[in-house]
Amino acid sequence: xxxxxxxAVFITICVATMDTRAQSVEKCLExxxxxxxxxxxxxxxKRATAELDDLVARLTTVLGPEEREIFERANRSWATYRAxxxxxxxxxxxxxxxxxxxxxxxxxMLIEGRLADLRKLYSDVLKASP
Length: 130
What we know:
Blueprint: H1 5-17, H2 23-29, H3 34-62, H4 65-91, H5 98-121, H6 123-128
Helix pairs in contact: 1-5, 2-3, 3-4, 3-5, 4-5
């Protein structure tokens, strides 16, 4: 299956900046059919979203009130950024078959990156909490 050059460049840049867990997204892009690719990417995004939700919930229970308020505000801002950024990326292929593939790929990769960022930033808090 041949990816559009714009999508290939977008994915290459994203994968180069993500931690090794993004390899699951790369594996999805090797699927034989568009349907297999979409199903795989949906699965990756669903798993990553569940992990992110769990991590955010855990952090909000262990952070102090002031830090928790800032963290929650940052999380809302990040979610808005993710939605807008991925919509912008997808619109490059508006109306084409790559539009939805680009959107879900972007979504999954940004979530994976957010997970890595939060784990690194709050590693001390996460180690100290049950």
